[in-house]
């Protein structure tokens, strides 16, 4: 039994040059496909070309690692031990970025063991899922933040209600002796349509109201690290 274990640990099968080249060609094609999927499905102001290029690099590097350890148990165990002590402290700015990283690793593993059909079919289904859920992801909410004098509070609420109708929701009202702050939550597409319908931007309309000090419209984010 001992001899069998030692023999299997020491056994190393050399991968042909043709297989290595084919694995990397398929990995590179899949990497460009993932980069394309990331670019067209990403929504937000912090799109990073560098991160997109890194996704392709992760795919090819993972393929190389799998090509090294796929036919050698000893190298596989050593690689697990080596990677277990590595900590990646880079904060992921978007929860979807983690999904793309896992996608790249999965594709790299598949290409490293020559499972091209699995890589191709799986990537197509992931891409279709992203397209089907793209609208839900891109439907970001905007926060309308208005600071004003106390006397302007009722007029502001009336203007916002008439501008958006039922498409707006008041999330906070802060009142003090110095003034008041009103915060509304509204979907981005509702904000755009309301501005077009009323032929004026809500911020400009509110600034015409006497007593309004500042009007801010910011994107409401639920991403990690922002």
Can you tell me about this structure?
The protein is an alpha+beta fold and 226 residues long. It contains ten helices and four strands. The chain has a four-stranded antiparallel beta sheet. Helix 2 (17-41) packs antiparallel against helix 5 and helix 3 (49-69) packs parallel to helix 5. The protein starts with a helix and ends in a 6-residue tail after the last strand. The protein has two domains: 2-137, no CATH class; 140-220, ACT domain (Alpha-Beta Plaits, 2-Layer Sandwich), CATH 3.30.70.260. The protein is elongated, with a radius of gyration of 27 Å. Strand 2 (168-175) and strand 3 (180-187) form a beta hairpin. The longest helix has 25 residues, at 17-41. InterPro entries: DUF4956. The chain crosses the membrane at residues 15-38, 58-88, 100-132. This is DUF4956 domain-containing protein. Keywords: Membrane, Transmembrane, Transmembrane helix.
List keywords for this structure.
226 residues; alpha+beta; 2 domains; four-stranded antiparallel beta sheet; 15% strand
Counting structural domains, the number is 2
> Per DSSP, what share of the residues sits in E-state strands of 2 or more residues?
5-15%
Q: In total, how many beta strands?
A: 4
Helix content: 55-70%
Let me know the largest β-sheet.
4 strands, antiparallel
Span from first to last CA?
Answer: 55 Å
How would you write the strand order of the largest sheet?
2-3-1-4
Helix-strand category: alpha+beta
Calculate the mean pLDDT score and round it. 81
Specify Rg, calculated over alpha carbons.
Answer: 27 Å
- Please trace the helix and strand order, writing H or E for each element: HHHHHHHEHEEHHE
* Contiguous runs where pLDDT drops below 50 for at least 5 residues: none
| General form | elongated
* SS element count, helices: 10
Transmembrane segments: 15-38, 58-88, 100-132
Keywords: Membrane, Transmembrane, Transmembrane helix
Protein name: DUF4956 domain-containing protein
Organism: Bariatricus massiliensis
